[in-house]
Each structure stands twice: as structure tokens, then as C-alpha cells.
Amino acid sequence: MNPVIIRSFEDFEQYNGKEIGTSDYFKITQKQINLFADATHDHQWIHTDPERAKVEGAFGNTIAHGYLTLSIVPHLWEQIVKVENLKMMINYGIESLRFAQAVTVDSEVRLVANLKNVANLRGTVKAEVEVKLEIKDQRKPAFTGVLIFLYHFN
User: Fold this and answer.
1) Contacts (Cβ under 8 Å, ≥6 apart) of 143
2) pLDDT score at 46
3) Is the pLDDT of residue 1 over 80?
4) Are strands 81-83 and 4-6 parallel, antiparallel or unpaired?
5) pLDDT per residue as tens digits for the range 63-79
6) In what helix (H) or strand (E) does residue 119 lie, and over which residues does it extend?
7) CA-CA distance, 143 to 117, in Å (whole number)?
8) Which of 25, 29, 78, 101 is the most buried (most CB within 10 A)?
9) Is 33 helix (H, G, I), strand (E, B) or coil?
10) In degrees, to the nearest 5, what angle opens at C-alpha 47 toward C-alphas 23 and 26?
11) If we measure between CA atoms, which residue out of 10, 16, 9, 49 comes closest to residue 33?
């Protein structure tokens, strides 16, 4: 997929109220889950113990941490949008985040992004992006929410 190129507020404005794009699928592996558990000190067995998860877990396998699925957003977002002419970007906030479905190990996920609103705040562009992390072959998404980015263009 070719990312949308954004160089200014006006470029963002073209997508206001519209879908910006969809990333490629990304596979969540047990190695990634274990590394995330190490980084966050969250070693709950449903994430890190495949044998126990198969026997005792509700999903038949280990699942990714919800925050792990959220943490791959920057990687997937860069597949959708390439922002150029940029001095600085700030992750400003997340609204209405809902984890709707567990992501089992070896599932593939992709990000779908719609520009809910864009505003020019005295030279700073505030972009509110509705996101949905879809799970391949699943009806319900892993999560939905609104990400808020501040872009400072040159």
C-alpha cells in the first residue's frame, strides 16, 4: 500500500470526515508478546504461558496484551500516512478507547483510519483520527478509539 502524503494543514483537510486508509496486516507473535511482557513487567499467564492458556484460558491460546496492540499503532499509522515538511509531531491523547476482542497469538491485525476532525490551532494542526484495529477473519475489531495528534509543520 502507498501511504497518503501529508505536507500541510490543507493536505489533512482534504480527508476531513473521510477514510484515510488501511495498513497492511501485521502478525502478533509469541516472541513479541513475551518481549512486551518483559518491557511492562506484565507476565500474566494468559499472555506468556501457552500451555496453561490452552488448558485454562478462555481463548484456546495466549493473547496479546491490549496495550501491545495499541503500541503497534505508530508502525501501522506510518503505512497509512507519511507526514512530510514536519518540525514535530506529538501524541496528544486517546479518546473513547475500547478493547472489543482479544487478539490471540499468531493473529494478523491491520489499522483502519478515518479523519474525524482536523483543526488549525494558530499553526499547530490537531488531527483527530478514528481508528479500528481489525483482526483478520474476525467480525469484531481488537479495539476502536480516537487518536489525537498535534503536527507542527515547517
Assistant:
1) 66, 69, 70, 97, 98, 99, 100, 131, 132, 133
2) 98
3) no
4) parallel
5) 999 999 999 999 999 99
6) strand 108-121
7) 20
8) 101
9) helix
10) 15
11) 49
Q: Which domain holds residue 89?
A: 4-153
Looking at the structure of the chain, the number of domains it has is 1
Nearest to 78 by CA among 20, 36, 117, 125: 20
Span 130-149, average pLDDT: 98
CATH code: domain of residue 34? 3.10.129.10
For 10, what's the count of Cα atoms within 13 Å in the CB-facing half-sphere? 1
pLDDT at 14: 96
- Residue 55 pairs in a beta bridge with none
The label of the residue with cell 473513547 reads 96
Residue type, 60: G
Looking at the chain, how many residues does it have? 154
DSSP state of 138: -
Look at the pTM and tell me if it is higher than 0.85.
yes
If you write DSSP's letter for every residue of 46-101 in order, what string do you get?
Answer: HHH-HHHHHHH-SSSS-B--HHHHHHTHHHHHHHHEEE-SEEEEEEEEEEEEEE-S
Radius of gyration (C-alpha) of the chain in whole angstroms: 17
